Amino acid sequence: MKRRIKTILVIVIVLGLLGGAGCGYYYYFGSGNNHDTTFRTEPVTRGDLLVSIGATGTVEPEEVIDVGARVAGEILEFGKDANGNQVDYNSPVKAGMILARIDDSLWKISAAQADAQVLSAKATLQHAKADLGQFKAKLVQADRDWQRARKLGPSDALAKSSYDAYESGYEVAKANVAVGEATIAQAQAGVALAETAVDTARRNLGYCTIASPVDGQIIARRVNMGQTVVASLNAPSLFLIAKDLRRMQVWVPVNEADIAKLHPGQPVSFTVDAMPDATFRGQVGKIRLDASMTQNVVTYTVVVQTDNSDGRLMPYLTANVKFELDRRDDVFQAPSQALQWAPTSVEQVAPESRAAYEALLARRAGRGEAGGGTTSRGQAATSAPAASSQAASSPAGTAGKGRRGVLWVVSGKFVKPIEVRTGLTNGAETEVSGEGLSERMEVVTGATAQSGSAASGVNPFAPRRPGRSGSSGSKSGASGSKSGANGASKSGPPPM
Predict the structure, then answer these.
(1) Of 255, 302, 369, 469, which has fewest CB within 10 angstroms of its CB?
(2) For residue 383, pLDDT beyond 70
(3) Which of the 8 DSSP states describes residue 444?
(4) pLDDT value at position 409?
(5) Where are the beta strands (DSSP E) in 246-345?
(6) To which H or E segment does residue 120 belong?
(7) 3-state class (DSSP) for residue 126
């Protein structure tokens, strides 16, 4: 008995499942006419349209001087800035103003030793001059003796040995004079060398006082009181002075794919994270040719010059930069996706616009833009969106420029077209013009097909019939962004 009951229950369950499948089968093949289409829309706006290359850079002072120490020693004290306060971060300074003093006791000793060496060298010079005087006097005496000996000659009155002695004495006296003159020259050189040592010692003593080389503002103080600085092969940095913070620069690494689009004088706008609501203006100053490679990506540093008279920009802020390639002021802008969308079937088009829709398909098919180019109602879905494929590969700012396009607006349960002319595009927005356009006009960017309500008796979980796509699905795909590292989008509306 229990087995029969179990068998009956299994049969009932199987029949129930088959009944549900039968309902699904009915919906799959016999239903589908109760579907509604929900259209997604976005407004047409009016304003300035900008095509740009995006990049990230760093705000830098226009001219920075690194003040270092040329001698070693302990920091004894700091000077006073233009406001009378101790030199510190952000201190305004003038050229020649004392920034710090280094312990100069050892350098004073060196200077004193150099002065003593000068005195010693001068004394040596005087001694050499006195010796030269003696040598000259002896030369005169030897010359006279030699002259008398020559008159007498070797004879009974003058022995041969005496004659040779006078001659030798004369030659020795001449040589001593030459030695005396050489000694004087050597002593003079010693005096000059000692004076040079004095100059070096005094300069080193002067280097113990660190002075500002320019007018500016201290943006970094790298030493503290009592700290010992050691100057060896490289001068240790003590202060970093910005010469003029009213003029700033932005150093921007730009990908090699976009560098050819930039040139000196090109307008630039940028924002900083510290002031997200403020937009700063500048222009390209120079493009440095010393490229760098990081992970096989070549970048060039572009220097952007900007005015900072109001002092809002601080050094080393991160800047979000836009290099302006082209712009249009006060124009209508439509979402590029709206220009790429088209109805998937003629039933979605308002009855009064269906003839224009089929004419549009025929015109596109005649230019070979629609695959088969048929205008039949059954294949309209494969014809309309195909025209957007050409725009996906066009560069930003040029795609669709001056071409015809179509925007679709909702009219009850249908849509109707508005023909426009397209202009500049930045990928997301496209300049449009034409009759019937107005600001805040809602244009279709996509559609979703939905089944009827549960009250209509349709099973929402049943499979859908072939050919009844759940969404019109804008076939524009992605906007074809090919900006490389700096984000210049590359997309555009379909040609008309």
Answers:
(1) 469
(2) no
(3) E
(4) 92
(5) 247-255, 267-272, 275-287, 292-294, 297-307, 318-335
(6) helix 105-152
(7) helix
At 451 the pLDDT is: 55
Please count the residues of the chain.
Answer: 496
Residue 481 in contact with residue 379, Cβ under 8 Å?
no
d(Cα 108, Cα 71) in Å, to the nearest integer?
A: 13
**Strand-strand pairing, 92-93 and 98-102:** unpaired
**Separation of alpha carbons 53 and 365, rounded Å:** 36
Strand partners, 37: 449
In the numeric block, the tokens 């022995």 are attached to 159
Helix axes 105-152, 160-206, angle to 10 degrees: 160
From residue 180, alpha-carbon distances to 123, 133, 144, 188, 190 in Å are 15, 8, 21, 12, 15
**Residue 489 contacts residue 397 (beta carbons within 8 Å):** no
CB 177 within 8 A of CB 135: yes
Mean pLDDT of 147-167: 79
What residues does each domain of the chain span? 53-61+243-328, 69-103+208-242, 106-206
- Structure tokens that stand for 371 in this block: 């695959």
pLDDT of residue 466: 41
Per-residue pLDDT of 353-372, as tens digits, reads 888 888 888 877 776 554 33
Query: What distance in Å separates the CA atoms of residue 494 and residue 332, rounded to the nearest whole number?
Result: 17
Give the span between the Cα atoms of 111 and 204, in whole angstroms. 9
No. of H helices and E strands in the chain?
6, 20
Confidence of residue 473 (pLDDT cuts 50, 70, 90): very low
Q: What is the DSSP string of 149-172?
A: HHHH-SSSSS-HHHHHHHHHHHHH
Q: Which residues of 282-320 are buried (b: 16+ CB within 10 A; e: fewer)?
A: bebbebeeeeeeeeeeebbbbbbbbebeeeebebebebe
Cα–Cα distance between 207 and 67 in angstroms, integer?
12
Query: What is the distance between the alpha carbons of residues 172 and 122, in angstroms, rounded to a whole number?
Result: 27
Position 172, amino acid: V
| Contact between residue 241 and residue 67 where contact means Cβ atoms under 8 Å apart | yes
Fold annotation for 53-61+243-328 = Elongation Factor Tu (Ef-tu); domain 3 (2.40.30)
| 255 pLDDT higher than 50 | yes
- Summarize the confidence of residues 171-193 as an average pLDDT: 92
What number does CATH give the domain 69-103+208-242? Answer: 2.40.50.100
Tell me how crowded residue 184 is: count the other CB atoms within 10 A of its CB.
Answer: 19
Answer yes or no: are the C-beta atoms of 61 and 316 closer than 8 Å.
Answer: no
Instruction: Identify the burial level of 241 via C-beta atoms within 10 angstroms of its C-beta, where 0-12 means exposed, 13-18 middle and 19 or more buried.
Output: buried
**What pTM was estimated for this model as a whole?**
0.62
Determine phi and psi for 332, rounding to 5 degrees. -75, 140
Of 270-274, 336-340, 469-473, which gets the smallest average pLDDT? 469-473
